[in-house]
Amino acid sequence: MDLISHPILLKDQEYRSLVKLIYDKSGINLGDQKMELVKTRLGKRLRALGIKSYGEYFKYATDPIHDEEMTLLINAISTNFTSFYREPLHYDFLIKTALGDIAQRKEALRSKKIRAWCAAASTGEEAYSLAISLLEYFKGQSAWDIKLLATDISSKALTDAYHGIYPTEKVKTVSPLLLDRYFDKELGEKGEMYRIKDEVKRLIVFRHLNLMDTTYPFRGPFDFIFCRNVMIYFDLPTQETLVAKLLKYLVPGGYFFTGHSENLPPMFRGQVKVIAPATYRKI
Question: Going from the N-terminus, what domains does the chain have, and what CATH number goes with each?
Answer without folding.
Answer: 12-77 (1.10.155.10), 89-165+198-282 (3.40.50.150)
